[in-house]
Structure formats: structure tokens, C-alpha cells
Design brief:
This protein has 365 residues and is mainly β. 5% of the residues lie in helices and 44% in strands. It comes from Brassica campestris (Field mustard).
Length: 365
């Protein structure tokens, strides 16, 4: 994999790449990730968009189970879509853009397996900013189902600060806004839990989970669960010094196949003095039970966790030939790494990514 990432780095900087390239190929699997024997695509992400004229570009992707293969697709997308000033989040292969006037648009253009001849775009009503809040800086987006076209789907936008907003595109499209009182949630992303049927936010530091039910028209008070960390390993002085020198981010991830909930702590710091590029140095994974115990683990079984600027997810590795299990894949604007959960071995490197969104398996009808 390290050879692949060195080649990938060359590609990102416009130099010839030695990695294997191939034309559009959907590598489908009939697997247990779905409740039925449907064909599904492996997780992937958009490496780049290759300009092809008329302000359009062709998608170039990397599949999670094909480390050494760069796949060139024929699918064309507007080049301005990967303008990072407008992209504010992604979930289940849909991206959200925020334009002037607070207009949010959902679209599936960056989903490699969605139609390129009939791309879907859904306009949401203008954002409403609560007093002493802001709606220009978005933390992330989450959805209660795989498509905003579903009648009962609720889309949530989490903003930097106290505002959390919900909208039902398939119903009456209007924003329901909530002001979060606890500042510990202000910089945290929102995720949707199918197990609990609620939108959940992990507070900074990872000691508290807040849950909001936005699927009904009633304004319900949030529920809170305090976490207790168990089985935390004793660290050497060197490891403690390393972790204390890093910036920490906490991520809540749920497995749809096992029903397990994980808390992933990522430790990152600048790769060189004075550099803005961040480099992952360590991770810790905790399994959360119904009583709020967050138990440290080095074994997540057959699962592979995907964390990016999109809503996180995890899949059974055995469902996709070539994918390794018991690992965490992390993708950011300036880094792409694979981290082994048992020994925290990190393989990867720094490279710019215009749309650092992992795309979960897509069912092919």
C-alpha cells in the first residue's frame, strides 16, 4: 500500500503515476452488507476530477478494495462542484453545496454509480439563522436514510457553534432549527443512528453523547448519555508525550450489520514545524454499550471503518473481495491513511483532495 500511496502522491502533483489505471468498471458484489442479495459497489472516494472541456471533468476514483488501482470513469461532472468554498458536507453519496443567500442544494454528481445523464439536484429552502448563531460555516451533513428523495428522510446540517438544523426534502421542505446549550457540542459533527432512530452528536472529548429526534413534527428535548471509559491501556512515557503533542478528534460510528457503536479517537499533528499539513500519528477505538461504557478495543472483527468529511460508516470487509478487516480508513483534505486497529500501524501520506468524502456501498438496481 505504501508503494501505491507514493504513486498516488505523484499523480496528485501532476506527475506520471505508476499505479495501475483502468477504465470504468463497477466491481459489484452480492454480499451480506445488504439485507437481501442485491449487487453492491465497494466503498470508494473521488481522487480527482480530470478536465475534459466545457467546464466539465471526468471522475477518477479509488475503490477501498483495490489499493493499487486508479479507476478512470466516463462520468462527467461540473468542475465548479469541487470548489471547496461551496461543498459543505456529504452523506451516502450525496453532497451538499451552500451558495450565497443560504441556499443549500443536494446532488449526487460525485457518486460514481449514480446516473450522469440524469443527475439529481434537490434545492432546500434558504437557511434560517437563529439569534447569536451563524450558518455560513458548516461542520457536516447527515441523513436519516440513504436518499433525500425518500419521503421520510430527514437531512441535518450541523454548524460551527450552537445551531443544529433539520429539513425533510420529501415532505414539507422547511427548516427546523435547534439551539444547543452545551458548548462541548459546538465543533462536533452530527451522525444519524439507525439503531436509536436519532441524530447524535459526540461532545468534544468524547465523554457525552447528545441525541435529537427530528423525524416527528414534535419538538422533543434532546437526550444525553454520559460515557465511562473502560479498559484504557497504560501508555509508555513516549506514547503519552506523542499523544499530548497531537490535536485530537472524536468520531462516532455505527455498524449497520452488527449493531455495534464505536468511538474512534484520532491523534494528528503538523507533519513538520510550521506546516499546515496534518499527519495522523495514532488512534484509539472504543466500543460503546447500551449502559454508556466505552471499552477500549484492538479488535473490531471483520469491520472496516471509514472516516472522512462525509458521514462516517463501516462495512464488513469480507463482503468485498480484496478489502482488509479490522482497520480504519481516514480521508481529509490533505491526508489519506489506513490504520490497523490491533497495532495502530499507519500506512498513507499527505496529498490534496478536493472532495474528501468516502462513499458507502451503493445498491445497483
Amino acid at each position: 500500500m505504501s508503494l501505491f500511496l507514493r504513486r498516488l502522491g505523484k499523480l496528485c502533483h501532476g506527475k506520471p503515476a505508476g499505479a495501475v489505471r483502468k477504465r470504468s468498471s463497477l466491481l459489484l458484489s452480492s454480499n451480506s452488507y445488504s439485507s437481501s442479495s442485491l449487487l453492491q459497489t465497494p466503498p470508494c472516494f473521488v481522487l480527482t476530477v480530470a478536465p475534459c472541456g466545457e467546464d466539465l471533468g471526468k471522475l477518477v476514483i479509488i475503490k477501498a478494495n483495490e489499493f493499487f488501482t486508479i479507476t478512470d470513469l466516463e462520468k462527467k461532472v461540473p468542475l465548479d462542484l469541487v470548489d471547496t468554498d461551496h461543498l459543505v458536507g456529504a452523506s451516502n453519496g450525496w453532497v451538499a453545496t451552500l451558495k450565497d443567500g443560504g441556499i443549500v442544494r443536494l446532488q449526487d454528481d460525485l457518486n460514481p454509480f449514480a446516473s450522469d445523464t440524469n443527475p439529481k439536484r434537490i434545492l432546500l429552502p434558504p437557511l434560517v439563522t437563529l439569534p447569536r448563531c451563524q450558518t455560513q460555516m458548516v461542520t457536516n451533513m447527515a441523513m436519516s436514510s440513504s436518499s433525500p428523495e425518500d419521503e421520510d428522510c430527514v437531512v441535518s446540517l450541523k454548524f460551527f457553534g450552537p445551531q443544529l438544523s433539520f429539513c425533510r426534502p420529501g415532505g414539507k421542505p422547511e427548516w427546523t432549527n435547534t439551539r444547543i446549550a452545551n458548548p462541548c457540542f459546538y465543533s462536533s459533527p452530527v451522525v444519524f443512528s439507525k439503531k436509536h432512530g436519532m441524530f447524535r452528536i459526540l461532545a468534544s472529548g468524547g465523554y457525552l453523547i447528545g441525541s435529537w429526534d427530528a423525524r416527528t413534527d414534535k419538538k422533543n428535548k434532546p437526550k444525553f448519555q454520559r460515557l465511562r471509559f473502560r479498559n484504557v491501556p497504560k501508555l509508555s512515557k513516549t506514547k503519552r508525550e506523542l499523544l499530548s503533542s497531537c490535536c485530537t478528534s472524536e468520531h462516532l460510528v455505527e455498524s449497520g450489520t452488527t449493531g455495534e457503536t464505536f468511538l474512534v479517537k484520532l491523534y494528528r499533528r503538523p507533519w513538520a514545524s510550521g506546516s499546515e499539513k496534518m499527519q495522523t500519528k495514532a488512534l484509539m477505538v472504543f466500543k460503546i454499550d447500551d449502559e454508556g461504557n466505552a471499552v477500549y478495543t484492538q479488535d473490531i472483527g471483520d469491520l472496516c471503518i471509514f472516516i472522512s468529511k462525509s458521514e462516517p460508516f463501516c462495512v464488513p470487509a469480507s463482503s468485498f473481495p480484496g478489502m482488509t478487516s479490522n482497520r480504519v480508513d481516514f480521508l481529509d483534505f490533505d491526508e489519506n491513511v489506513c490504520i490497523s486497529v490491533p497495532d495502530s500501524n499507519i500506512i498513507g501520506g499527505n496529498c490534496p483532495y478536493l472532495a474528501p468524502y468516502h462513499i458507502p456501498p451503493q445498491t445497483i438496481v
